[in-house]
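TL;DR need C-alpha cells for one chain.
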Amino acid sequence: MIDSHSHTFYSKHAVGTVDELVRASIAAGVKVLTITDHAPFPVDTHNRLLDAELERYFADIEQARQRYQGQIRILRGLEFDYMPGADAWNRELIARHELDFAIGSVHYVEVPGEPMVKVWELPRLAAQAFLDRYFADLEGLLQCGLFDAVGHADTLLRGVPEDIVLRRFEPLLPLFADGGVAFELNASGIRKSSLEPGTGREVHGQWSYPSRGLLPLLVERGAAFTVGSDAHDPRDAGAGIGEMLEQLQPLGLRRISYYEARRRVDVPLDLLATTASAEHLINGYVSP
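>> reply
TL;DR here they are.
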C-alpha cells in the first residue's frame, strides 16, 4: 500500500506524533508513506506548521526513517496552500527545504464581497460566485509549476452535484495531460460527510470523492495519480485506500504514483497486488 497524504499533530487540527503515525501505517500494511503536514502560510496559522517548527518536523521524519528502516519507506512532504498571489511565498519555502513531495491544495477561497470560504463549509460550495473563484484558483495552482500533485481537487463533491463539477473540470483537463501535475485520489471522501442531494441534509457514510465520473476523463488524457488517506489521526493511516483502488480500477485506473526527491515513481496496480511488490517499493522500485 502507498499512502502519499498524511498528517500529524504538527498540523494542529490533527493528532499523533510522527512515530505514532508511522507505527500505525506499518500495522495497516502501508509500505510507502509520505508525511505531508500543512506547510506554513499566512492564512489560518492555527491549523498548520509554523516556520519555527519545520526543522523539528523534518528531524522527526528522519528519526523515524532510521528507526523503521526495512519496514516502511518514509518520505518527506508538505501540503501547501494555494491562493492567488502566494507563488512567491510557496516558492521560497520549497527552495529552503529538501522535499520528496509537494502537494498543492485549495482550502481557502476569496469571494468578492463575502467572508472567505473554506472548502469544508458545505452549504457555501454550490454558490456560483464560489465555483467561479475556486476553479480559477485551481487553474492557477495547476499552472504555477510549483507542485507535484493537486490535493483533493474534487472535494467540492461533498456539497456540489457531480455533473456541475465535471463541467467545471473540463477546461482544466489539458493541464493534467501526460502527467504534468498528478491528480490526487483522496480516500478521505469515503469517511467525510456530504450533503444529501435534494434535501441538503448532512449525511455520513456515502462516497463523495474521488469522482468516478472524472477518473476516465483524466485517464484518457494520460494523467498521473497519487493516492492518500489524508489521515489526521494514526487510526486512519492507510484508511480507505484499498477499497478506493478496488472501485476505481474497473474505470481505467492502471497505475498510481508517488514522489521521491520530487521525481515521480509509477507503480502498476497489478504490481501492488503481489507480495513481492512490498520489497520492490521498499528498495526503490521504479517502473519502466
